[in-house]
Amino acid sequence: MNDRLQIHYVLSSPHQKEQSEVSSSSQARQKLEGLLNKNMRIRMTDGRTLVGLFLCTDRDCNVILGSAQEFLKSTDTFSQSEPRVLGLAMIPGHHVVSIEVEADSLDDTQGFGANH
């Protein structure tokens, strides 16, 4: 889909390009707003995983999670480590490897599927 948007930008006039960027930006903002207060799992570069409620993000992709719990990377893939309760946590964008949203949280969110 991004390839199509880039091609569209190349083929459109500068004025049309600005309108497309604004509508694309507002669509992205609506999707993010739909994820507010949803449970997320964020995997980080050091192997830790944080689980909590998505509260906000910024242009640098920093993420704030509420009621966050930290799970450490385990050498034994079958063992479940006890989570450490963090409460409010800020994850720097450059440490984010992946973000997953719980499928149950997405049932009432329009525009998203369980695969995102």
From TrEMBL:
One Pfam family, please name it. Answer: LSM
Source taxon at top rank? Eukaryota
User: What positions does the domain Sm occupy?
Assistant: 27-105
InterPro entries, per the entry: LSM_dom_sf (IPR010920), LSMD1_Sm (IPR034110), Sm (IPR047575), Sm_dom_euk/arc (IPR001163), snRNP_SmB/NAA38-like (IPR050914)
Known CDD domains for this protein? LSMD1
Task: Output one GO MF annotation.
Answer: RNA binding
Q: Which SMART domains match?
A: Sm
> What cellular-component terms does GO give this entry?
NatC complex
Q: Which family does it belong to?
A: Belongs to the snRNP Sm proteins family.
Name of the protein:
Sm domain-containing protein
